Amino acid sequence: GLDPTLMEKKEKIIQEKKHEKFIKTKKNYKRAPLMSVHLRVMMAVILGQIACGYSLGISGTALSNAAKYINISDFWTGLIGAGALIGLAGSLLVGRLSDKIGRRKLLMWNMYILAAFSLLHLITANFSLTFILRIGIGLMIAVDYTVGNALLTEWLPKGEDSKRQSHLLIYWTIGFILSYLAGSFITGFDSYTWQIILATSAVPALVTAIFRSLFPLPASPGWLASKGKIKTANKVIRKHMGRKWRLPARFMKRNKKKTPRNISWAILFSKQYLRRTLVGGIFYACQAFSFFGISIFLPILLQSMNITSGNISGIIYNGGMFIGVLIGTWIFNKVSRRFYLISNFLISGLLIGILAIVPNLNSILKLGIFTLFAIILSAGLILDYPYPTELFDLKVRATGVGTCITISRIGAAAGTFLLPVLTNVGGASLAMLVCAIVLLFAFIVCLIWAPETSPQFMKK
After folding, report:
1. 329-351 confidence digits (pLDDT tens)
2. Which pLDDT score is estimated for 44?
3. Which residue intervals of 305-396 are DSSP H helices?
4. In sequence order, which residues have a C-beta less than 8 Å from that of residue 132 and are 6 or more positions away?
5. What is the pTM of this model?
6. Residue 375 · residue 170 · CB < 8 Å
7. Number of Cβ atoms within 10 Å of the Cβ of 34
8. Is 321 exposed, middle or buried (0-12, 13-18, 19+ CB in 10 A)?
9. Which among 200, 264, 279, 400 is least buried, having the fewest CB atoms inside 10 angstroms?
10. Contact 126, 70 (CB under 8 A)
């Protein structure tokens, strides 16, 4: 008989040749044109962004309505308003869970759970239970924030992934504005109105959940490959894209490298990364402090500013916010990241500072400055996705970005909690003055420390 060793070598050579032929005859799925599977994933993530924006924004109009009929303190107004943002701080835990069990499972169920939490608002007016429900809703939003973005970038063709990701903020803003419109025009249920307003976030959540059930999300080939399931990943690609597509060549190598060990959070505060960690965390937190604090409690702020016709004024402000996001998307790659960041904080800080220091301005002029502030601040939100990613190299990127997001949620929750308290203590002027100080502090930090990360401007 033949030598078993020689047979093993012969079999290995045959397998290697088959493997080489497979790589040569199949194409990298990340270089494919847009197909139906890409559009399905995109639509599922877009609907999720609309639902997330709506669920976050709805608490402000609900709580301002509640104050008309029930006795609710500033403490509970701020805490319930910040509840979903506190839940969002669980992004790090959700990200780690998705790395263990995959993207698809979480995204197929989170919107059903978000809808259930939203509907439970109808059966309780207890502040503590409402706060707990808001935290639960925030955790479900965290799934779409982290896992939805991951699935989108892992499926879309190279070049399309970053471009489409930068557009997600537009859809999030649409959901946020829709929540303001819904909350402003739902009336006639007296003390029950605020609970109905909160429960309406079940509508976009259910639309998203049903879409994902009717058009099921595919598993992530990249995640499967990272777990060593190469054959399964290629099978998923063939199923959804056709037989001529495969994983990128780097996943197909026969000699598997050792899996890198987990990076400790402590490395982010070492000499090598401390400056970038501080810039990423502070810029994101200061921006979130002002944006969520003002946007969520806009009705309370407009009332304190003595701006008449609050609904119309709110629509104008939210329209300015949407215009700002569109402008930001357009100019994003036309200026350097560092200049964009510094100028955005400086201009928005000065605008809100003028309103705080000169409170007796004409109402129309006041609304005009306030709307311009919304446009400038919202244009800066475009940096939230790419800049933290660009601050960190591949070795610490996931840990660094996750840390920046968690810090930003602390800032957002702080702004949302403090704004109604500050407005009650010192009126709109005090609330806006604190926002101006926070934004100008971020301007100084970025002016001193923020690095340039734009590839086209780093070369100059």
Report:
1. 888 878 888 999 999 999 999 99
2. 95
3. 310-331, 337-357, 363-380, 386-391
4. 83
5. 0.80
6. no
7. 12
8. buried
9. 264
10. no
